[in-house]
Amino acid sequence: MSEETPSSPQTEARNVQQSDETKSTPPTASSLTVNALNPNEVDRNELVSRARTFLRAPQIQNQDIFAKRKFLIDKGLNEPEIEQLLRELPPQLPNVPPRTYPQLPPSGLPTLLLGIVRLFSWIVGGSTLLLFIYHRFLMPRISQTSRARCSLKTHHLTLLQKLNTSLKSLKEAQSNAFAVLPSPELYKEPVDYSGCHTVDDVLQQAEKLKTETRSLPHITLLRCGIEEFKNRSGPEDSAVPSTEELFQVLESKIPWLVSEDGVAFEHELWNTLSNSAVFESSDAPGAEGQTSAATHWRYIAPEPVPPPPLTSSLETLSSTIFQGRRTTSHQRTLQSLSEFTGYISTQVYAPYRPPSSITSNPLNPTPEDELKKEIRALKGLVLNRRSFLPTIPKTGSVGPS
Hints:
The chain is mainly alpha-helical. The protein is 61% helix and 2% strand. Among the domains are: 66 residues, Arc Repressor Mutant, subunit A, CATH 1.10.10; 63 residues; 102 residues, Arc Repressor Mutant, subunit A (Orthogonal Bundle), CATH 1.10.10. A two-stranded antiparallel sheet has the order 1-2.
């Protein structure tokens, strides 16, 4: 069944008008009289009837309603006439699809399955290749590196354990060794300043040692200040200085303490005075009208620390050991000469012994032979000792220029 191509409403209207003109009969006398009486109304009715015939044509019935309305407006019909003509049309049935359908396209499922299979084959092949490379090349190196790290970590732990063990043994040995060593004296004064009893003595000793005032020992300055205050006040034991009096004594002897740097040094002296155990403080009752009592200071010499048993035994041993006098090569030579002179004098004043026979017996040598032998031996001894003496450089000798 061939499908007819729909024609446009304008062409169909022309065809309908031509067919109406061919089929129309010649006008009668009555129609001519009507047209002559009302020509506008006759033309309008004829236009509406033609439009109705046009709309009822089978080719136009399937057209769109908007196209029909546009065609009627172009022909000169007004809106009420168009609405009336459209209402007179039979209801338009829906388009029935053709009974024959086109052939369905081929299914793409096999192609899709083939693509999925190819994709999975590529994935499996690539994974297999990567696993082979990993187990063949990377896995041995990684395992070797991990084993090396584990061994290195184990070695480090072993060394740390050995270090801890050695440290513990060292601490035990130190504790055992420190037990026999003398304990340090916390408030021991320097030996150079221990014999000073006044601030002037401390300053003179500092000039000898070329020491600055800020480097003087604090305990020595405070002790000498307390002793000097006692000497000024009198021989009474109860004459102890207060804090202000002690620092006044020090400032009168050392004017540098009044300066800015000296104030900082005075703070250090105050810290030593208040924190050191060799200085004892006592609060004296204040005068009337004074709320706070003055603090007086007294110096208490620290008790000497007894030497440990090891030091005592070493001192006893050193005192019992004979310490020979230091001799030189000249003293040995003089001693040898004096012994030789004494021997000669003893031989000179010895009684005379006449020979028993003219021929001397080698088994019984004469005194003269013995004297000659001893002289030769002594001469050889002196020569040998002189050859092995060390060379002593002369003080007045000057090296080659």
